[in-house]
Amino acid sequence: MLSRKNWEKYLKLEVNPIIRLLILSDFAIFYGFGLINPIFAVFLNNQIRGGNLEVIGFASTIYLVTKSLGQIPVAEVVDRLKGEEDDFWLMVIGTFAFSLVPILYLFARTPLHIYLIQFFNGVMTAFTFPSWMAIFTRHIDKNMEGLEWGIYYTLTDLGGAAAAGLGGFLAQNYGFQNVFVLTAIFSLVGSFFLLLTKKYLFIDKF
Prior knowledge:
Elements: H1 4-11, H2 17-36, H3 40-47, H4 53-80, H5 85-98, H6 101-105, H7 111-139, H8 145-174, H9 176-195
């Protein structure tokens, strides 16, 4: 568990501003997607024609396989290109793109629609994750590696946990559509935090 002293370091801005912004970005994104994670299976079962346990499992497989197979080629490109311009744009564009995934769910009617959306989500995540990790690793503060990773996982886990119960409540009382829109809003807010890292990165030009 993070000590009071470590939290004070974070709250008093002693952490690298790039790290702070990356953490805030993922906190907002994880909070947003935390709203739909616990209700996604119910959504597929109730709102998608032919939606069942098989569709739910296959949809998850498509996302995970696409993300997993795509990450290594993207990571190789990120490592091969010099400077941080490529990292920045892959991270920002990929994050904004998968922030639209909840909106795409609103238009899904069949399992095929869900599969295509999951494939798109996997591709965008594959572009985003290696570039985000490269920037985070490059700018993490010396002798504060454990602290900053600890703060990252603590905040994102707490954000997802807080959103899970709320997502079920909102879906039950206000419908899936409103939850998906709210998820997209939180994720887009997180994406805008990434744009703020621009002035701190070692980028020659845009």
